[in-house]
Amino acid sequence: MKINLEWLNEYLDQPLAVTESDISDLVEEIERTSVEVDDYKTLADKQDGLIVAEVMSIATHPDSDHMVITQLDIGQSQQVQVVTGAPNVAVGQFVILAQVGAHIINHESGELIELSQVKLRGIESNGMLVALQEIGFDAKIAPKDFEAGIFVFNPEDIKDVSTGDDALAVLGMHDIVVDTDLTPNRADMLSMIGTAYEFGAMRHVTVTEPDFDLIEYETLAADQINVVIDEPSLVSKYAVRVMNNVTVQDSPLWLQKRLWNAGMRPINNIVDITNYMMLMYGQPIHAFDLDKLTGQTLHVRRAGEDEILTTLDGNERHLRSGEDIVIADDQRALMLAGVMGGMSSEVDANTKNIVIESAVFNSTLVRATARRHNLHSEASSRFERGVNSDNTFNTLDHAAALVDQLAQGQVAKGRVVAVDKQPPIIKIQLTSQRVNQLLGTQLTLADIATIFDRLAFTYENNGTALIVTVPARRPDISIEADLIEEVARLFGYDNLPVTLPVGPTTLGKLSHRQRKMRATRQIFESLGLNQAISYVLTTAEKAQKFTLAQKRPTVSLSYPMSSDRTTARQNILSGLLDDVAYNVAHSVHDIALYEQGRVFFAKNENELPQEVEHVAGVLVGELAESHWQKEKAERTVDFYDIKGIVAQYLDEIGISEKSIRYVATDQYPDMHPGQTADIYAGDIHLGFVGQIHPSTLKAQKLPRVFGFELNLEHVFSNIDEDILYQKISRFPQVSRDIALLVDDNISNATIESVIWDTAYSKLVDVTLFDLYTGENLSKGKRSLAYTLTYQDDDETLVETDVNTDFEKVKQALVSGLGAEIR
After folding, report:
1. Any idea of the CA torsion for 445, 449, 452, 456, to the nearest 10 degrees?
2. What is the pLDDT of residues 287-314, one digit of tens each?
3. In CATH, what number is assigned to the domain containing residue 449?
């Protein structure tokens, strides 16, 4: 909300000082007591040298068909000559002259430039006639388009302007505007009067609300318009007034200044009055052209089937049947209630009779409509947060009085009220004991009452407690805690006593589950995978891919921000595939990623989902590894690489290798049926590992991708071994090599099992370093060579002990497997 301090001071009995130093102190106080301040500045900024001038004569330029030579009165003895190409310049106009030496803002670059004397096609020009866009006005708030030409003062405003006056001051561009960043609960500060009450409470100043005189004519409003409310739930207050014989024209300068300093564009006097009232009271109102209505009845109803409305921004809106609230005549919708008016009943230069409405619409329905149509207007932002229902009809009457004053309209007699439901009066009891208990203060009941006096809250003091009546302008206050917050912020947060918390202290530490979660990330990173973070929200199709269980109902948002972020994920692999696609598109071909996060499962529709921790990973491209034949070799990753990562993780996290089993499966439509396995710990399903189905990758033009996904809840519940720290031995290792000739149906795992079962406790590692099949070997035989490594943590090994154990292992291989020692 942009707060013009000059305007705000009209409602404060003691005006706020508006010098530069005072503003910085005020802003600091606002932020400490009330709300954040985004910025404070003036429209003038650092511009200078702009004055009011009167066009005395115009002559054609001898060397141009679009420029003219003007002579200007600037309040001095000698006139000033300026050459201009403005299409709307005319004798007798009061315009804005940027003199030689003036500093103005370049409307294209935003930079400050200094004007100098120039010759245009050989004719001397001493300055520049400007449009508002050329002196810092955004195109959104300038009342005329830049192409329309220079700014010209209305004839009605000339009596208050003299040649030579500072144009920046005349246009209100020196007014300091404080831009507050309101929280959703502070609906009261979306109005100048509501802000005046807030600033008045901060500065101990009384607020005086504006007064007006409303003169009604004999013509009855009820004879010209009627209002029908289809559903009581749509609106709690609704009334209209009729004004006849209005003259639609530009607003006077004082009103335009109020609007453009508030960031709104002046349109015409009728529209400007409705916006001015909204800024003043926080109550949106809307004007219809009475003669454009079909029939004499306004209907407040829900949108009908296939109903279409063109709103004032020129966009065609396809209304949602039974959900959007509209104001309609007997045949068609006229506006989206509480959001934006429609083109069909727009007030324009030919309008003679108008109807102005003021209402309190259902805030939930207004919010839904604004989101549905992506149409967040000044009106909807106020209805969504809550308006002051005490001012709903007062705003309407004030607007009618201004139409009489500024548009010569005749206010028809009587206010047509369709509904006037009074909101419940909220009374809250508050004791000093409770306030002091929460704030740690020593405030008396009288001290607290003084704070509510500053807030202009009414209350009863029964000697032991205050019975506070919450004003309608403060919809954010409903319980005792809200009142205590008001006491705290106006007493001053920096004045509250500072104390250390009292109570037993406990040693902070991670839970067992948190330690395992952290260990999961560390293990995968130690295995060469990089962590990725994907969006929790995805499309409905991607959400149900790679599911570890039966298809379950999805969890979808009612109002998603985009079409590709509508549904909570039920897997992590889909997000990792998006990451792979991004990397491949940026010429990264060797990818190793993992992600740990939550997935969401709902048992039934419209139920809160169950959140389950998962971890998933992918491998793509070439795998570089050390090799005994080459220092570095590259090969394409395969199923066994991703399976090895999963196996290593499960071993390091504490699940016994003996309990893990891999079962081939073709039950996952998005996984390759010949290269996918379910992972079990006993009978508990932990997840799956394998190759992503080529058809799944085809749409994103991805190479072969291998991946896995594990349910961490199941993994953690099946941990049966505590991972213990083992110190590194400082004693040397002893190794022995052995080459075996065995039947080719004997697996490496079988041989290693025999070695481990036979050797004594000092054996620490068994490594296969050679495999040979081919010439010089009998049919059905193959040769395997192993290195056995021995080490003792406590002492140096004795050579005879190692040799004895090594012989024992050889005998076991010969007798148990029929191996031949080579």
Report:
1. 160
2. 999 999 999 999 999 999 999 999 999 9
3. 3.30.56.10
Backbone angles phi, psi at 605, to 5 degrees: -65, 145
Same domain for 653 and 761? no
- Asked if 580 and 531 sit in the same domain, the reply is yes
Q: Return the closest-CA partner of residue 384 out of 325, 316, 441, 318.
A: 325
The whole-angstrom distance between residue 730's C-alpha and the CA centroid of its chain comes to 58
Binding residues, by number, are: 476, 482, 485-486
d(CA 405, CA 276): 14
- Looking at the structure, tell me whether residues 563 and 692 fall in a common domain: yes
User: In this model, does residue 60 exceed pLDDT 80?
Assistant: yes
**CA dist., res. 88 & res. 129, Å (int):** 11
Q: Which of 127-131, 502-506, 711-715 has the lowest mean pLDDT?
A: 502-506
Residue 804 token pair: 């004895």
Q: Are residues 251 and 155 in the same domain?
A: no
- The CA-based angle 673-679-681, given to 5 degrees, is 160
Dist. CA 711–CA 571, nearest whole Å: 10
Q: Per the structure block, which two tokens stand in for 351?
A: 């309008």
Cα separations (Å) of 195 from 177, 206, 280, 474, 648?
Answer: 13, 12, 10, 11, 64
Domain residues for the domain of 447 are 427-491
Residue range 587-595: average pLDDT?
Answer: 93
**Spatial distance between the Cα atoms of 678 and 400, rounded to a whole number of angstroms:** 75
Q: What is the pLDDT of residues 155-205, one digit of tens each?
A: 888 888 999 999 999 999 999 999 999 998 999 999 999 999 999 999 999
Euclidean distance between CA atoms 241 and 222, whole angstroms = 9
Residues 711 and 741 in one domain: no
pLDDT mean across residues, the chain: 91
* Structure confidence by residue, pLDDT tens digits, 452-496: 999 999 999 999 999 999 999 999 999 999 999 999 999 999 999
Number of domains in the chain: 6
> Over the stretch 70-121, which tens digit does the pLDDT of each residue have?
999 999 999 999 999 999 999 999 999 999 999 998 777 778 899 999 999 9
Q: Residues within the annotated binding site for Mg(2+)?
A: 476, 482, 485-486
- Closest by CA to 276, choosing from 407, 97, 173, is 407
Rounded (10°) CA dihedral 228, 232, 238, 240 = 0
Whether residue 208 is contained in a domain is answered as: no
Same domain membership, residue 355 and residue 286: yes
* Residue whose token pair is 């705290």: 488
Cβ-based burial of 616 (10 A; exposed 0-12, middle 13-18, buried ≥19): buried
All residues at 6 or more sequence positions from 576 whose CB lies less than 8 Å from its CB, including other chains: 532, 534, 593, 594, 595, 616, 617, 618, 707
Mean pLDDT score, 736-741: 92
431 and 401 inside one domain: no
* In contact, 303 and 323? CB cutoff 8 Å: yes
Q: Rounded distance, CA 753 to CA 787, Å?
A: 14
Strand-pairing partners, residue 179, are 2, 39
Q: In the structure encoding, which two tokens stand for residue 473, read together?
A: 């302008």
